[in-house]
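Journal club prep — side note

Before the paper discussion, L.F. wants everyone to see what a predicted structure for a comparable chain looks like in token form. Sequence:
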Amino acid sequence: MGKTLKFEEPIVKLREKIVELEEFTANNSVDLSDEIGTLKVRLKNLEEEIYENMEPWDRVQVARHPERPTTIDYINMLFEDFMQLHGDRAYGDDAAIVGGIASFESVPITVIGHQRGKDTKENVKRNFGMPHPEGYRKALRLMKQAEKFGRPIICFIDTKGAFPGKAAEERGQSEAIARNLVEMAGLTVPVISIVIGEGGSGGALALGVANHIHMLEHSTYSVISPEGAATILWKDSSLAKQAAEAMKITAPHLKEMGIIDDIIPEVRGGAHRDSKAQAISIGNAIRTSLDELGTLDGKGLVDHRYDKFRCIGVFSE
């Protein structure tokens, strides 16, 4: 089952009790089928009650789950003939961002995404999914290549944020992010971004200036982490739960505010419970977006993107 999140503990304990009774029944001449059936009904009701009423902080924990599928996982499940491309042609390669060319249902595309690790060794290699400037410059290089050859761009967002270290600042972190924002705004091919885990700050937005922005149901998208916001507002990172509620960082809140376009439902308990089923849902969203955006020409795509972001924050009394 993997790591158990705190809010899931009642569900896990009930599952363990069911397994215990099933094993006892199998090993002894005792019929406990009625008791097991009652517990399974109770488990189903408990799962519905907990998973359908998750608080923002619960969703943050699911978005950070170490077993949650990553960009490479989805690439392997969704696309054919993926060829990974490396380097920014200026400094080096950044393992925190992966990208290349592939095909989606016979349509040539460019796919780019943040990549974190699933264990300590890989997290060190990937810098915990926090890119340096060369990562964003690699992403931009691949986007401009996609524009040259008329390929739609699909971005997977999953990062706590851009790496804030001294080396990253020396190599122009803020400039690299800013340039991505400007260049993405003017791309003449369809751009689809999908938040699959954490979408943190400018590090996420550097892959998020898209015609369509989708979010997995339990992912987050925010200007800062709940812990960071709590530290700034209340000088106490332990108040992250309250910050998560106040910041409106979950998919339902962002959909309501018009910041994202669609919410992709997750399998019960989170994408890590059934990554293949989750990939199918993501594929359906990509297909729908490509069909809709495919009716627009280059200027129409730029205007569509401009209008989308121009309307964010507009309200009437």
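L.F.'s comment for the group: The chain has 14 helices and eight strands. Keep this in mind when we get to the figures.
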